[in-house]
Amino acid sequence: MSDSISELLGRNEHHAREFENDRFEDVQDGQAPPFVTVCCSDSRVLQDELFENRTPGDVFTVGAIGNRVFEETATGLAVSGDVLYPLVHADTDTVVVIGHTGCGAVTATYKDIRDEIEEPAGIRHCIDLLKRRLADGVVALPEGLDESEAINRLVEYNVDQQIAILRESDDVPEDTDIVGVVYDFQDVYTDERGLVHVVNVDGVRDPEQIEAEHPELADRVQRLWTY
């Protein structure tokens, strides 16, 4: 057995000591988290840590390659049950879709759209799902971008597409607030690594409109690509 597993279990002991006594008392019999976050499955993006989530029951966290909110079902595409569960059963009223700079899933999808790449079946399935929503974005990209610039604009486009899916679904309650952000650890938006930048609110992606409608978010609204 790898020493890294022992190290991981040791970290859990530290966690358990920090959370002893009454940290879980309020959520023993259920949960009602105000937020569900949908983040890309990437080891560089600490989904709970980036919002300093240390309170059990506060944030319902969902991770998926490419921060996808949808999946293939027997009857076609549908909003993922991972995302729907807190909205339908736990009184959650806000979804935060979190993309991130340099996203590997978006990169792979971009490369596959331009020139098919080989991937194992499971990864191929994820790429094919993303391709359905990103293909038009690749065509619409401004000319003259290098690959990194193209990828980071598609990261925003992907967040927009995931929000569109949520808004189009009859399964998502109408009064759900949906916010799209991009987590930047590569100095793409600013030199303050780790900030999330708001790129979409309830389907609105124009920064000026978002700022006008949500002045409390004004200092965090920023996009690389308005289309």
From TrEMBL:
It is an enzyme of class 4 (lyase). Its cofactor is Zn(2+). It catalyses: hydrogencarbonate + H(+) = CO2 + H2O. One of its GO terms (molecular function) is zinc ion binding. Its EC number is 4.2.1.1. Belongs to the beta-class carbonic anhydrase family. Keywords: Lyase, Metal-binding, Zinc. SMART domains: Pro_CA. Zn(2+) binds at residues 40, 100, 103. Binds 1 zinc ion per subunit. It holds the Pfam family Pro_CA. This is carbonic anhydrase. It comes from the Archaea. It comes from Halocatena salina.
